[in-house]
Write a structure and sequence with these properties.
Elements lengths: L4 E8 L5 H14 L4 H21 L7 E8 L3 E8 L14 H6 L7 H8 L2 E7 L5 E9 L6
Antiparallel strand pairs: 1-2, 2-3, 3-5, 4-5
């Protein structure tokens, strides 16, 4: 893998942007030399985070999502920022998957998927001239042959 690779994307909160986000992230991770399995994991986690913003945040035409990638030899850090209403996904309790399947539930697993895929998840809300939610997702690699 390339020692250091940085990339960033800015988009609106239209769900029609999700395929474009996935394609852009996958392309960038491919350029960085990311192993395909890690690329799939990161794309899924980013897609889930952005979907939550797009579908659940109270948004208007001025809502923006910024995605930054920082890939290194042994980890990749993704920072997703949005200026929608504050929402800390870490406050959502972990799901009991046995109960989930017994009750034949459908959907609502995005945050659970992120928790299972990503090694370190951090959330921060900052207020200033404009409020920003910042979700940091870090994926560590088990070996250096990416």
């Amino acid at each position: 893998m390339t020692m250091h690779h940085h990339d960033s994307f800015i988009t609106n909160t239209s769900v029609q942007q999700l395929p474009i986000i996935r394609e852009s992230i996958a392309r960038s991770l491919n350029i960085a030399g990311m192993d395909i399995s890690y690329t799939h994991q990161l794309c899924l986690a980013i897609d889930e985070a952005c979907s939550n913003i797009m579908l659940h945040a109270s948004t208007d035409s001025d809502t923006t999502i910024k995605i930054s990638l920082e890939c290194h030899e042994d980890y990749c850090k993704v920072i997703i920022q949005d200026n929608a209403s504050p929402f800390d996904p870490l406050n959502i309790p972990a799901k009991d998957m046995n109960l989930y399947f017994q009750e034949k539930n459908f959907g609502g697993l995005g945050i659970e998927l992120m928790r299972r895929i990503i090694d370190d998840i951090q959330y921060e809300h900052s207020q200033g001239k404009q409020s920003w939610n910042t979700l940091s997702l870090t994926k560590y690699f088990t070996n250096s042959s990416h």
